[in-house]
Amino acid sequence: MKITGKTIKYDDNVNTDVIIPGKYLTSTDPYELAKHAMEGLDPEFTEKVKTRTIIVAGLNFGCGSSREQAPLALKQSGVKCILAEGFARIFYRNAINLALPVLECKGASTKVKDGDELSIDLKSGLVQNFSSKEILKFKPMPDFLFKILDKGLIEYMRQRVRNEV
Amino acid sequence: MNLIEKILAKASRKREVHPGDIVEAEVSKAMANDITAPLAIISFKKMNGKKVWDKEKVILVIDHLSPASSEESAELHKAMREFAEEQTLKYFYDVGRGGVCHQVMVEKHVTPGDVIVGADSHTTTYGALGAFSTGIGSTEIASVWLTGKLWFKVPEAIKILFHGKLTEHVYPKDVILFTIGQLGADGATYKCVNFSGDTIRNMDIEGRLTLCNMVVEMGGKNGIVEPDKKLYKYLGIENIEAWRDDEDAEYHKTLEYDASQLEPMIACPPAVDNVMPISKVEGTEIDQALIGSCTNGRLSDLRVAAKILKNRKVKRGVRALVVPASQEVYKNALQEKLIETFIKSEVMVCNPNCGPCYGGHLGLLAQGEVCVSSSNRNFIGRMGSSKAQVYLASPAVVAASAIKGKISHPASVKV
Question: Which of A59, A71, B82, B167 is deepest in the core (most CB within 10 A)?
Answer without folding.
Answer: A71
